[in-house]
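[[Encoded backbone]]
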Amino acid sequence: MAQLFDVHPDNPQARLIRRACDLLIQGGVLAVPTDSSYALACHLDDKAAADRIRRIRGIDERHHLTLLCRDLSELSSYARVDNRQYRLLKSATPGPYTFILEATKEVPRRLSHPSRKTIGLRLPDHRALQALLEQHGSPLLAATLILPGHSEPLNGAQAIRQALEHELAGVIDAGACPLAPTTVIDLVPMGQGHEPVVLRAGRGCLSAIGLG
């Protein structure tokens, strides 16, 4: 059965975060809370774990998996960002936004979009997840925890554990998440002198970052 880590939402216990991180290093998939909804997360370079996420979600390689990053300096290692794009990213992070950007060579080819060579990235504003990212020391690969045939993400840690007890290595329980997806914004057109394209309006406020 998946391990359940009951962590404080504002002051996550370091020993529990270390134990959860150990599961990632061992190739496990975790259900982690974010500032939008629960997500599935694994080590970036673990192909088997990434394939498990896709299998749980019922998606193929054409669906973007997202890199969860600690800060903008980490993000720049995996995406090509010009000054205009950087200013928008700085105004919006950390927060419930997913940004589509041109992938650098640091991103394994199998993780970028097969035709566009793009990657989805986000800097979540959730203390437990930030603590996990800090402990892990590098980005995590993630996807929103929506099961096949469902229209909304699973939200309760116990419900997630029960539904996926044989698929997950662990579940981090820091309380219920907002039951809303991230706002997804394609920033690739900005690199070509155009405006960003909002692909999905979600929890992230568009007017707060200068988009209507």
About this structure: The mean pLDDT is 91. The longest strand covers residues 97-103.
